[in-house]
């Protein structure tokens, strides 16, 4: 029997202002991994200058293969398009009562311009 886990794509903003895109069945657990609270996390977010990372948004995608495809497409986007996507996903999350789980996009960080 195939797994029925729901997969999500998420975007983080690192302390240095960079954006990181990933996929997971549990974005909140994955954030804890990226921040070193529990084991795991991508090498990109393990660097001291990038921690802590803040969860900007996530969206339910469906299967792992669908999430991988969406992740790949987001990673190809220019930063300005990623920022626009963050705003749309954040609006959707707040309208569903999930606004307490996310952080605002910070445009005052060095890489955020």
Shape: globular
Read across the widest sheet, the strand sequence of neighbours is 2-1-3
CATH class: Alpha Beta
Tell me the number of structural domains. 1
β content, as a range? 15-25%
What is the count of β-strands?
3
Number of helices: 4
Average pLDDT: 92
The secondary-structure class comes to alpha+beta
Uncertain residue ranges: none
Please provide the ordered H/E string of secondary-structure elements.
Answer: EEHHEHH
Largest sheet: 3 strands, antiparallel
What is the distance, rounded to the nearest whole angstrom, between the alpha carbons of the first and last residues?
A: 47 Å
CATH architecture assignment: 3-Layer(aba) Sandwich
| CATH level-3 fold name | GIY-YIG endonuclease
Radius of gyration: 14 Å
Percentage of residues assigned to helices:
25-40%
Describe the protein's architecture and organization:
The chain is an alpha+beta fold and 113 residues long. It has a single domain, classed as GIY-YIG endonuclease. 37% of the residues lie in helices and 19% in strands. The protein contains 4 helices and 3 strands, in the order ββααβαα. A 3-stranded antiparallel sheet has the order 2-1-3, sandwiched between helices. The protein is globular, with a radius of gyration of 14 Å.
Please tag this protein with its features.
113 residues, alpha+beta, GIY-YIG endonuclease, three-stranded antiparallel sheet, 4 helices, 3 strands, globular
């Amino acid at each position: 029997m195939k797994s029925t886990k729901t997969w999500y794509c998420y975007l983080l903003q690192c302390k240095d202002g960079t954006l990181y895109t990933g996929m997971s069945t549990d974005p909140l657990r994955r954030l804890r991994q990226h921040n070193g609270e529990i084991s795991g996390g991508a090498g990109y977010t393990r660097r001291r200058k990038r921690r802590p990372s803040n969860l900007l948004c996530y969206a339910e995608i469906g299967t792992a293969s669908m999430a991988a495809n969406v992740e790949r497409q987001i990673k190809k986007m220019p930063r300005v398009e990623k920022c626009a996507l963050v705003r749309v996903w954040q609006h959707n999350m707040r309208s569903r009562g999930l606004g307490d789980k996310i952080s605002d996009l910070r445009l005052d960080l060095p890489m955020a311009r």
